[in-house]
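pinging the channel bc i need a second pair of eyes. not urgent but kinda urgent?? the chain im working w is below, pasted from the shared doc
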Amino acid sequence: MTNDTAKVFVFDAYGTLLDVHAAIARHRAAAGPDAERFSELWRFKQLEYSWILTLAGQYVDFWTLTQRALDYAFARVPSVDRALRAKLLEAYHELDAYPDARATLAALKARGLPTAILSNGSPPMLDAAVKASGMAPLLDAVLSVDAVRVYKPRPEVYALVIARFALRPQEIAFVSSNRWDVMGAATFGFRPLWVNRSGMPDEYADRPPLRVVTDLSALATLEL
């Protein structure tokens, strides 16, 4: 990294600002004892489909992948009633933000720093989630991979931020809870920060984050 300072903070959406397990949390009682396993599998397959399609040179929007992954989870965890499908998709379309998300974005804006989302999510699902979570007024841009029709961690995705803000990679702080996403951002030249809420072991040692934090609130006063 150079001595340049971050001039914009860009956030991953799903898992970083938005709680991907909030959908199952709203229906935990109805989902039963395998609810957590079901939700983890749903999330894992959603991401796996994005990576496999990108490797194959194909693109299907993230909302479709979310539905396909949900159907797979139902097939693998039959104890969860398939009648919940519509309710779970409705909940996923308007996921809850993490409790510290809005306050952190507001604090960064108060410091005069632009904020943005760069996400695998399709524009309609991002629009719905950002509005439902109350984050819309706190964001200067919401960027979707749909514009380039490949998924993270392809460099074409991170380049969307360069095109939007006309900055050099080293002037962009990129925040994600997904270590593979942090790796992609580091490879592209961003100033990457890893939000490691669950105390997960580090990976991709040759592409380390600039900082590791345990929640978003640590970013409010962080100087990069």
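so The chain has two domains: 8-18+95-219, 22-93. and The chain is about 45% helix and 10% strand. — does that match what u expected or am i reading it wrong
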